[in-house]
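Per-record layout

source: Pseudophaeobacter arcticus
name: Branched-chain amino acid ABC transporter substrate-binding protein
length: 421
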Amino acid sequence: MVFWEENMKKMVKLGVVSTLSLVVGASAAFAENVKIAFIDPLSGPFASTGTNGLHQFEFAAQHMVNDQGGVLGGTNFEIVAFDNKISPKESLIQLQVAIDQGIRYIVQGNSSGVANALTEAIAKHNRRNPDSRVLFLNYAAVDPALTNDKCNFWHFRFDANADIKMDALTDVMSADESLKNVYIIGQDYSFGKAVAAAAVANLTEKRPDVEIVGNELHPIGKVKDFTPYSRKIIASEADAVITGNWGADMLGLGKSLIENGYDGPIYTYYAAGSGITAAFGETAKGRIRLISQGNINPIGSEEARETYNAFKEKYPDGNIDQSRIFNVIGMLSTAIEAAGTADDVVAVANQLEGMEYDSMWGTKLFMRPQDHQVIQNLNVGVHTNDNVEFDYDNSGFGIVTESTVEMASMDSPTTCKMKRP
């Protein structure tokens, strides 16, 4: 039994075993599935974020596609998990394993550093191997470069990029006349730097009277005690904090700020779910604010309500904290049906370009053809236990929408020069 369990673990790490279905001897049935490789952290400090994302992909594929009869007259979606340990190098290894298994669709979202490595490798692979091309469906990596200078035909982003999010977030912040001083802090890699640059640019333009009293980066995934950072922020007398931190770094920074007595609003990109909401609890009520897409509180539609309830029945300890995952599955299945094939990824990509999609989460999505950046409504919500229908982490607390920016940055410029096959 121990031998079986140990070998199963090794097979999962290599992406050999589907996390959506494991039926011994059913390889013939699986051969016709549309396989989607999930390359994200399933171990290490960001494992909870990756695992919850994986569960959402598994559920979305089953609930939205397989239970509805599949695509193309009965073909199912199958999610295959690959643990990249949040490492770009490991991600490239797992990408090659996925390609060698004949997988043509790659999803990833945690870490723009990983996304940059993947998009470059996929573009190179597709140039050299026109008979085994793959598409990269980016559901959460928001470095603006990915749909600007580093854009390519094979990459589609289903989340607003860091610049678009900051534009919407600072629209809300700039309306606060009491705001005088802001402190910016983030993780030291491409995404953290992009958030900081966007915050400075937007605040300077919209509220030149606001002083940026701090702007620093810290090592990603390595800080065990954020107290020194919190004390500097408090000493700066900042009225508000902006951070793009996610996972363990978001939880560590937020808890440290609150425990050390900071009482101003903390404007975030990813301060919800995956254990973060429960850990904050009452201490963060009315303090943590989040820029996000998709309406959870209030829920976007009856379909979304039914979907969330079904998800909670299957994963009682899980959250739908990345509704864009369901948009990825919905838009991909729509594109495959319209193309009449799942094997010809160029035909599928052509259908994704310019697609308008009505999301169950209460907004229309538009996949902008010039840079493959999705455009959608963005919400700013607050961490609270008031008027919460769907909480996170079974905590009683969730994110309640306070304001919405419609089709955020629809006409924002892009430096992308798309080269199509």
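summary: Residues 1-14, 16-31 have pLDDT under 50 and may be disordered. The chain has two domains: 2-160+303-375, 163-292+377-405.
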